[in-house]
Amino acid sequence: MNKSVMIVGVGGQGTLLASRILGAALLNSGFTVKLSEVHGMSQRGGSVVTYVKYGEEIASPIIEKGEADIILAFEQLEAARWLEYMKPDGQVIVNTQKIDPMSVVIGDAVYPDGVIEAIEATGAKVLAFDALPIANEAGSSKAVNVVLIGAMAKYTDIPKETWIDAVKECVPAKFLNLNLKAFELGYNC
């Protein structure tokens, strides 16, 4: 059975490393994997999305509305923006961190209240938590991405050890221990 994962966030949050870890875990599990990264002004805090499809036979990485089994959101508004792509029985893992979009930064809009509650009101299965203090506990605020990948790993049928091997494969040696700790903390959320 084919499955789909969307990783959504804002440029600079480490979504690309998260997608590489996911891809490595899937490939090491023997799946056929198709991955597509879409960058929208990613270096300036714009929306970034990675589509990942895996299974036995995958023709395209593009995920249509209503197809995603999992949405891994690095920021609240990004979770809300991409929610229509999730299956009715899908899982949303969302970092409760708020990053102001450009419209808020320049004063044309206000960051809305109740984003997580609005997502939950759709009936979606939601795991929402603040990954930043957990990343800091691991040793760096930059490890939010690996904390989130660790939290997502529980919602897959991939063994934990395969995930750990994927982190080892994708993270430079000098940051490995920190990221292994971040993964473990996220996994235990």
Can you give a write-up of this model?
The chain is α/β, with parallel strands linked by helices and 189 residues long. The protein has a single domain, classed as Pyruvate-ferredoxin oxidoreductase, PFOR, domain III (Pyruvate-ferredoxin Oxidoreductase, domain 3, 3-Layer(aba) Sandwich), CATH 3.40.920. The chain contains eight helices and six strands; from the N terminus they run βαβββαβααβαααα. The protein has helices spanning 15-28, 76-82, 102-105, 115-121, 131-138, 144-153, 160-170, 176-187, and strands spanning 3-10, 32-39, 47-55, 68-73, 86-95, 125-129. It has a six-stranded mixed beta sheet with strand order 2-3-1-4-5-6, with helices on both faces. Helix 2 (76-82) packs parallel to helix 4 (115-121). The chain is globular. The model has no long low-confidence stretch (mean pLDDT 91).
Q: Give a short account of the largest sheet.
A: 6 strands, mixed
**Proportion of helical residues:** 25-40%
Number of DSSP strands? 6
Order of helices and strands: EHEEEHEHHEHHHH
The radius of gyration is 16 Å
CATH superfamily name?
A: Pyruvate-ferredoxin oxidoreductase, PFOR, domain III
Beta-strand residue percentage:
15-25%
How many independent structural domains?
A: 1
* CATH-defined topology: Pyruvate-ferredoxin Oxidoreductase, domain 3
Reading off the top of the CATH hierarchy, the class is best stated as Alpha Beta
Instruction: Classify the secondary structure makeup into a structural class.
Output: alpha/beta
Overall geometric form: globular
User: Taking all residues together, what is the mean pLDDT?
Assistant: 91
Q: How many angstroms does the end-to-end distance come to? A: 27 Å
Name the strands of the widest sheet in spatial order. 2-3-1-4-5-6
CATH architecture title: 3-Layer(aba) Sandwich
